[in-house]
Design a protein that fits this description.
Shape: globular
Radius of gyration: 19 Å
Order of helices and strands: EEHHHHEHEHEHEHE
Strand content: 5-15%
Number of strands: 7
Largest sheet: 5 strands, parallel
Number of helices: 8
Helix content: 25-40%
Strand order of the largest sheet: 5-4-3-6-7
């Protein structure tokens, strides 16, 4: 590869070494800032949020390279399928897409907090909730649908990653842990001009909320 963006920047990825053909840009984790925030809730540094720093990892000037940014184009066939599977998407009602899961336990916002959040949304707004995630997360997510089976829909494990990109583009707000583990989802959501709420900095179970 000519360029590697190391977004993990851990002991395993440190085995990657640059050479005369390859440049490596590593994500700055701001470990000291994170320690102060987790230990004493001191937000002592004015640092951009994680998803913005992902993009800043590679200092590319797109006007001076062959790289191009393209607006995400949803496949009409997938849009049609999603609207058929989730009728609320075709009705014009406002929808909030929530990805409650995360591969690592420490990156999950506690399920009880999602239960409280969804209950509040259902009580105070007319929004419909769509839950997303992988097949492995279905059992974790399923209890949230019991809050209101007419306004909370579970799509976990039903769609591919690309189909989830399209689902993102059809919703009005996204809430997720750790940007759903994939910066592409956030990128496509931002290109679709959606608001994104990231619970990453309040996701750890040992933190007080």
């Amino acid at each position: 590869y000519l360029l590697i963006a190391d977004l993990h920047n851990n002991l395993r990825t440190r085995r990657l070494r640059p050479n005369r053909y390859t440049k490596i840009y590593r994500f700055k984790k701001q470990r000291i800032r994170r320690f102060f925030y987790v230990k004493w809730k001191w937000d002592v540094f004015d640092v951009a949020p994680v998803w913005k720093r992902y993009f800043q990892t590679v200092p590319l000037s797109f006007s001076k390279t062959d790289f191009q940014l393209r607006k995400f184009q949803a496949d009409p066939a997938i849009v049609k399928q999603l609207k058929r599977d989730i009728p609320v998407l075709a009705s014009g009602q406002k929808c909030i897409l929530i990805y409650p899961g995360a591969r690592h336990f420490t990156k999950r916002w506690p399920l009880e907090y999602y239960r409280q959040l969804i209950s509040m949304i259902l009580e105070r707004t007319q929004y419909t909730i769509i839950l997303g995630g992988s097949k492995d997360e279905s059992a974790y997510i399923q209890p949230l649908t019991r809050l209101d089976q007419n306004r909370v829909f579970d799509t976990s494990g039903k769609y591919s990653l690309f189909e989830n990109f399209v689902l993102v583009s059809l919703c009005d707000l996204i809430i997720s842990n750790n940007v759903y583990g994939c910066i592409s989802t956030i990128y496509r959501a931002s290109k679709a001009r959606h608001k994104i709420k990231n619970s990453n900095y309040v996701s750890h179970p040992w933190r007080k909320h």
